TrEMBL record:
Organism, as annotated: Paludisphaera borealis
Name of the protein in question: tRNA pseudouridine synthase A
Catalysed reactions, semicolon-separated: uridine(38/39/40) in tRNA = pseudouridine(38/39/40) in tRNA
GO molecular function annotation: RNA binding; tRNA pseudouridine(38-40) synthase activity
Gene that this polypeptide is encoded by: truA
Superkingdom as given in the UniProt entry: Bacteria
Residues annotated as binding substrate: 111
Amino acid sequence: MMRNIKLTIAYDGTDFHGWQRQPDLRTVQQVLNEAIEQLTGSRPRTTASSRTDAGVHAMGQVVQFLTASRHGPEVFVKALNAILPHDVRVLEACEKPQVFHATLDVRSKRYRYRIDNAWIANPFELRYAWHVFHRLDVDAMNRASEALLGCHDFRSFETDWPNRMSSVRTIFDVVTIREGDLVFVEVEADGFLYNMVRTIAGTLSFVGSGKRPEGWVGDVLRAENRIEAGPTAPPHGLFLLRVDYGDARKAGSE
């Protein structure tokens, strides 16, 4: 009988061309599939909660696959980490019911965008944070982002609209946090459009640096036009933090 295995994985996306397998390119799905095949003896069909782009990182990506292997969860963790390259780690493994689907059962996902807000770029953050040397007003960014909460058409924050059948999404939480010279923009929603978090971060950076007033973010949202928003922040500052499959929060509701 086939078993449905759920993995929670983390990876440094710097040297990957995103999650999804592509011919002749190094991707997270490719190296994970190869490791699973080496362990179980059969090629898996892996499904992920989010198809992260090239250069984007993950601290809590969820992956599922079916297997006839009888290995226990702890074996999957230890053995796969022994096979995988250093920039991918399996954090947890468990067996789920056959009906569980890593993509379709998602209730919410939370992303963090990291900004190095030091006057001089920190060389140790070059792979993991966007350098913005203008001092960012985090309080102004938080006030401005309140306009994004709830269910809206977010096409102003989507690159190359339309990429999906609908650009309506529900944002449950958006917050900007400062820790020394690092600024984090975190967004949790029932789903995301292409480059949505990166565009939100770029737009809020304009408010934080004083280039735009706080009310401008609401104007951008209502315009439903990508040209009205701020820049798309570069991919290397984006992290998939976690994926929620709980029943307490229903997709499509505030």
